[in-house]
What we know:
Strand content: 15-25%
CATH architecture of the largest domain: 3-Layer(aba) Sandwich
Structural class: alpha/beta
Helix content: 25-40%
CATH superfamily of the largest domain: Aldehyde Dehydrogenase, Chain A, domain 1
Distance between the termini: 63 Å
Largest sheet: 7 strands, mixed
CATH class of the largest domain: Alpha Beta
Number of domains: 2
Bound molecules: nicotinamide-adenine-dinucleotide
Strand order of the largest sheet: 14-15-16-13-12-18-19
Radius of gyration: 23 Å
CATH topology of the largest domain: Aldehyde Dehydrogenase, Chain A, domain 1
Number of strands: 22
Amino acid sequence: MAIATQALIDAGAVVPMLIGGEWSPSFTSGLRDVTNPVNDRVIAQIAYGGADEADAAADSAADAFRSWSNTSTRYRSDILRRTYELLLERAEAIGYILSLESGKLLPEAIGEIRFSAEYFRWFSEEIRRPQGEVFASEDQSRRQISISRPIGVAATLTPWNFPVSIQARKVAPALAAGCTVVARPSEKAPLAVAEVFRALVDAGIPKGVVNLIYGPASPQSNALIDHESVEVISFTGSTAVGSALMKRASARIVKCALELGGDAPFIIFSDADIDRAIQGLQIAKFRNNGQSCIAANRVFVASSIMDQVCDRLGKLTEAMSVGDPLGGEPVDLGPLIDQSRLREVDKIVREATSAGAYFLGGEPKMCDGPNYYRPGFLVNVAEECQLAREEVFGPVAGVFSFDDEEEVIERSNRTSMGLAGYAYTSDQGRIWRLSERIEVGILGINHPLPSVVYSPMGGLKRSGLGREGAHDGLAEYQETKYVSIGVEGL
Ligand code: NAD
């Protein structure tokens, strides 16, 4: 079906912001090109605002908060449910735009829109469940309750790698809770996410409840953090930026919910089903062209099966095709988001290879086109190299052998990050030990795709604060109010 953002792109029209219920063509910072990473050609232009637009959007959200926060849960639930239905109806058309602007494989892009829709469905239901407690009073002259109230205006600041689902997992619970929203997506993939806001408008959301702004990151984020009505900053992105935002937010004591970088271990024990583990690694490493915060980053293989697994990984990556996700031929990987990402991945690989690492199954090479990078696994990676210590955020990973469980747990935890991890084993006792001792917020055991809308997702250590999804994700946008009521006649 025809969707509005596609019509704007086809007409060469500017993709506007949404402020106070109006699609705003205001662009105090000019227009900004959005490019297709397959060939770096311009596919659209967005209106690029600045701090003024961030302030205007936060003012609108603050006005709208007065009434939205006092609507019935049934009313809000119905709008979220309708948004879910609209996103599902439009998933293929929105997914196409997402693939075009991000280089994601088309099935993954459409899957992301369907997954985003699920957040609206799940929170439309969760907000209809009890939202408070009645305490067992120890005093017959009083009763005590707690109620959940919306925290205020939420600023949702998101990256380019899952630009639609990461906004959805913030916006859906915020709206369900009764908060209003100012969303600032990444300038690198701003188009498909606009359709989430179009779906909300089409579903009947009142003016000002949701606002979408585009513009330079730092001035807009700072304006939102400093705005007197913004009470929660929900940010997903790098740890460095998350830390800077939290520092600024401390001046006004604004709540920060942070989903930050990862460095996921992927452990294959000798008792694992090796076919299943390799299939899982292919997904956990190469989904979204390797640019996922929960991507497998360091692969640990039991020494007794190291040769066998390395042989399989070499063959796997040699057989993988890299190309245009919308080019007609099926491909296993698309391009990286841009040149700076590609240069960063290449720098990490070069540092490792010059210290003695080598690729399994032949040297990865660049493909035709500016942003393609061949997938590959490297062995003999020196411990001091970035590849052994930090998130790559690209389709390569180091493979390391280990001798026993204790050792691999210690090595997995030897990182300041703690977002996700994976392990393949058939030992039930070990599954429990790993669940309790691997220092990550999200652990996939014998399964590479842990993300679901009804489970709490988030990081330990420097990977973040707070949880998204599940009831915990709703609670990020709620304040607990305690009420003590004097009672006579008992
Ligand atoms: P990034 O931190 O550079 O950018 C994220 C967002 O912040 C973008 O919208 C960007 O425009 C904005 N931004 C950049 N600099 C800023 C500044 N100085 N002040 C305010 N805003 C600023 O991250 P990225 O490169 O877009 O994404 C990759 C990182 O995000 C990786 O570390 C990845 O692990 C992490 N990530 C985490 C999750 C998660 O759920 N934990 C999900 C996706 C990505």
